[in-house]
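S1.2 Input.
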Amino acid sequence: MAGAIILILAALLSLTGSIFVAIAAIGLLRLPDLYTRMHAASKAGTVGSGMMLIALALVSAGSAEALRAIAAVLFFILTAPISAHLLAKAAHAAGYRLWPGSVLNEMPALDVAPMPPDAGDGMVGSPDAQESDGGAAAPHGAPPQIAPRGAA
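S1.3 Output.
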């Protein structure tokens, strides 16, 4: 009887986790800007994969597999939100703009010091790479202009 309850609980956790992962995937496709997509991937993806790993821990035959699954859940919970926050902060510093329909932007505008003309190394975003695109480059130190998804 107890084994059947554990199997039912694991099935419910697995089903609910897969729904969360599907919502995260749909969010990656449908949400309008980098920041909201990153939120969908980090939050719903973490919850979904955590639920499926807990279901795995419940039905595992040995304690080693259950311990690994629980360790993976803890790893996801500790790393996914922090890495998403740092990636969003780096994207903001690089000049990625919020969706125009965003209601609130709590991040202050960054005052980026202009790069000296000789600091370019030909990499994307460097002065040399910006000048080689036919003269349509942004001034040195200006954030790159990112085209919206689907724009030519």
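S1.4 Remarks. The first helix runs from residue 2 to 30.
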